[in-house]
Amino acid sequence: MTATVTETTPTPQFEPPVAVRRRIGMVRALRHAFSITWRSLLKLKHSPEQFLDLTLQPIIFVLLFVYIFGGAITGDRHTYLQFVLPGIVVQTVVFATMGTGTGLATDVATGIFDRFRSLPIARSAPLVGTVFGDVIRYVVSLLVVLAFGMLLGFRIETNPVAAVAACLLILTFALALCWVSAFIGMIVRQPRSVQGFGFVIMFPLTFGSNVFVQTSTLPGWLQGWVKINPVTDLVTAARGLLVGGPVAVQAIHTLLWAAAIVIVFAPLAIRAYRRRT
Q1: What is the pTM of this model?
Q2: Is a pLDDT exceeding 50 seen at residue 84?
Q3: DSSP code of residue 11
């Protein structure tokens, strides 16, 4: 009796194109990043004291500048409130971006990122997810300042669409600026050092702008810095969208600045993060 051996040809497995694999990888990485974003929101839920610096500081600034300096600067506190509140909104959100670097530096120092590295998630997910999660902090800070300003008498003199556009423009710039904070958080050794580096950057950007006074009232040498300061364009555009004034050119400049900051500092932050973790 002769046995017949049947040779089976293995079925070739389908290999998706490189472009498809990259797209699938990006979708997975975004899904992992959003999971880390949810973790950031849960941290805020269980540690509401983190909102104190987002709420008390801007309220103090509004009261300080409107009721102590407002009469001396413009002679009318209500007029100065209409002028200064959009600037304080911008300043508050810009300062809030320092929390991104502090949070990242703290997670690295406490070993949380070592645990993330052992999980089957995208390498960049903890960094990107933390950045996305901090957007919620910026929204809360922005709404607190606007709400408190309205309690004091601030009024939006344009329309709701323009007001929403002002908020989105401020949040877009803050999202770009937080990559600078993330880069700082990845290169320093101690979380408390982020605050020191952050203030060195944020103070010239905010106080060296038209947040509190008109550019024309400043010394000539200082006007040169104020005019090229990206925060000046952001504040001018936000004022125009909230109470009226020039918008288009300043908004375009702000978006270009935001794009440039992301192009430069996002790769630097990711590279520093990979080197650190």
Answers
A1: 0.81
A2: yes
A3: P
